[in-house]
Write a structure and sequence with these properties.
By secondary structure, the chain is α/β, with parallel strands linked by helices. Helix content is 42%, strand content 17%. The strands form two sheets. An eight-stranded parallel β-barrel has the order 1-2-3-4-5-6-7-10, surrounded by seven helices. Helix 1 packs parallel to helix 2 (43-53), helix 6 packs parallel to helix 8 and helix 8 runs parallel beside helix 9 (216-225). The longest helix has 21 residues, at 77-97.
């Protein structure tokens, strides 16, 4: 297990390629590449990111969920066709920088009744296969405002898509008021990727080591589960000040997770 950093840490300040170069300068072993916009969805841009990362292993790819996530499961065939073209372009970039994990949010659930997940079966299966054909695992991420927002849903999704993987995002699960360990236990060997961020006592984002949680029970649950993936620090907004604070948080996570 390694502790890495998402290029989203610098999302509001740097272009993606510059964020990759900043991560390389920090001596961090692995990273998630957060592609920011449509012009980055191609192999040429992926190769640029790969060059800027240097020795850093690009573990995963994440994108703006508003660009095509809903389109992959749309009822309109034309919407789906365009969304899958876009997904293919994202995977072109991901292959170029070497990612093995694709992170998906899915459809939002705000003010919505429970959808008929079976209607999505064919389309999500197609996305899973498209990723697999590129050597990339499709993972559905826990997000409080989307549909993977309770432990029971893990079983529903696994029944529909036996080859699905999961990304567990700690800040999202905490926001829901759920126990991280409940998600680990349910996900089992489908847990492919982990994002970490904390909250302070006032409910604001905080870097791990400066927040309200120590993550030790979570780390023990991952080890008991035989988790072989990486743990990616995914900070946003005011959680990040100076680069020194990021490095200190990653060092703290290495100790807690007994990781590289």
């Amino acid at each position: 297990m390694r502790i890495g950093l998402s290029t989203a840490a610098f999302y509001s300040r740097l272009n993606t390629e510059d964020a990759a170069e900043r991560i390389a300068s920090l001596g961090i072993p692995c990273a998630e590449v957060f592609l920011q916009t449509f012009s980055e969805y191609n192999a040429g841009f992926g190769a640029l990111v790969r060059s800027r990362l240097g020795a850093v292993d690009a573990v995963s790819v994440h994108t703006m969920s508003t660009h095509y996530d809903a389109g992959l499961i749309a009822r309109s065939e034309r919407q789906r066709d365009d969304a899958f073209v876009m997904l293919g372009s994202v995977l072109d970039a991901a292959q170029a920088f070497g990612a093995r994990i694709f992170v998906y949010h899915g459809l939002w659930n705000i003010d919505a009744g429970k959808p008929r997940f079976a209607l999505w079966r064919e389309h999500i299966a197609k996305a899973i296969a498209l990723c697999a054909n590129r050597g990339i695992r499709f993972t559905w991420e826990t997000v409080h405002w989307c549909w993977l927002n309770e432990p029971a849903r893990i079983d529903e999704f696994a029944a529909l898509w036996p080859d699905i993987g999961f990304t567990l995002d700690t800040k999202q699960v905490m926001k829901l008021g759920h126990r991280l360990t409940d998600y680990v236990d349910r996900m089992g060997d489908r847990l492919s990727h982990v994002h970490v961020l904390d909250f302070d006592a006032n409910g604001r984002f905080a870097l791990p080591g400066r927040g309200a949680h120590d993550f030790r029970d979570f780390a023990r649950a991952l080890r008991a589960n035989g988790y072989k993936g990486d743990v990616i620090l995914e900070p946003y907004g005011g959680a990040v000040g100076q680069d020194r604070e990021i490095v200190e948080s990653i060092d703290w996570l290495r100790d807690v997770f007994q990781a590289q």
